[in-house]
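Record 1 of the preview.
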Amino acid sequence: MIELLCVAGILVVAVCQLFLYVCGTKFGTLVLFTLGGMPPMVVVNYLTAVRMLPIGFVRREGEPLPPEIYYWVVTRDKVWASIRILLLAMPLGWAAAFLRPPALPMLYEGLCNWCIALVVVLATARLLALSFLYIIASQTIDRSSPRFIGTLRRWLYQFTSNPDFL
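->
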């Protein structure tokens, strides 16, 4: 088992070094930081949002929908407002992160760049988690919501004549 972990670690380091060589060290550090830090942050944000908002019906499967679904109308507006604010802030944040990418020798000047990158990655993780939560909660109550998923389902039904899409 230890041998497999060592080989996997060596392969990960080799892939990261190859990626840094191809992308250059200027943006490679930001991309590796994003790819390495984003999945755990998305999971933590998703679980926190499910626990903090009154939408316990997302966690339960196979049971009848509880009365909490009536809170979704109010909660949906809050989640959608947070998603819109993050969507407006994302281009500015990523532009700042690409203009001042973090560097590995973390000196005093580079600390600000690392803080910018951390804030942008945290905000992106929050945006992805809230988007997943919004889609999953909407799908739990109504399979045709949000609107773009309902449109896609109707299009697939018309294209294939398969009632499973409805």
